[in-house]
Amino acid sequence: MRVEKYYLRCGVWSGRPRAKLLQDETPEINIALTHFHIDHIMGLPFFAPLFEKGVRIRLFADETVLACSVEEMMHRLFAQPFLPMGMEAIQADLSFQDLSDAEIHTIGDATIERLELCHPGGNTAFRIRHNDKTVVYTGDFSHCDEHQMRRLTEWMENVDLGIVESTFTPQNYNANKSFGHTHWHAAGKIAMPVKKVVRCAPSPSCG
Ligand SMILES: [Zn+2]
Asked: What pTM was estimated for this model as a whole?
């Protein structure tokens, strides 16, 4: 049986799915990365399916926005001084794809659209449709650009699940503005049309 899995971030807990994944006869794993900040990729070296033969893994990113290819990022990560092993340790059938060459891409049974948002080093939000369900994942962003926020709010229409960054509170946002994140009040307004919202990436100092 062919089973497709989709990941939108490879943070520190991403090593967990091994047992479940290996129950699937032919797992195909699609990982779309909004950007390459360490909290979004640090799970990759511990993502057990990477080290299993017979697993197909595709890594996607908008390389124009990030000014770095996803393949280059992997070569930098899988190297000294971060890891004792290089890319040769990867046993899965791994491929890379730049999402910047089209507005909409088909990935397996899903379609994925992208929207550039303000964040130091760049960030791309994703809207993914699979069967009759739609998910938006914002990645990290700052709500400083009015045009982008209008587009993002329009994107949220008829979305079943919005996974929206809201790191700060309105009270501590200004003191941390240079980090390029948003606060829960602005995120809540943007996500108003969404049927279900998950707030993600809250700062530990925000409670
Ligand atoms: Zn970030």
From this structure: 0.88
